[in-house]
Design brief:
This protein is mainly alpha-helical and 75 residues long. It contains two helices and no strands. The protein is flat. 0% of the residues are buried.
Length: 75
């Protein structure tokens, strides 16, 4: 989870992630984690700037050959 999503937008000053959206995201991630566990897998969840978190994960895992990501569309 990128903490910057809790900051206001540049146009309207509304939070990108309000309480209802945050609750939905947390419930969705929890459900995904449970589904993956039931199938013998797992889900890594971290809080922080993606550019830092991904770098830390790569360092921890050691033998990463590919990283795939999706950049948020900016309005």
């Amino acid at each position: 989870f990128d903490p910057r999503h809790r900051l206001g937008t540049h146009c309207y000053g509304f939070p990108k992630t309000g309480p209802q959206r945050l609750r939905f995201l947390l419930q969705s991630v929890t459900d995904l984690r449970e589904t993956l566990r039931a199938r013998g897998s797992t889900l890594v969840v971290r809080k922080g700037k993606p550019e830092d978190v991904v770098n830390d994960l790569i360092t921890q895992l050691g033998s990463v050959s590919v990283v795939v990501f999706h950049e948020e569309v900016k309005e």
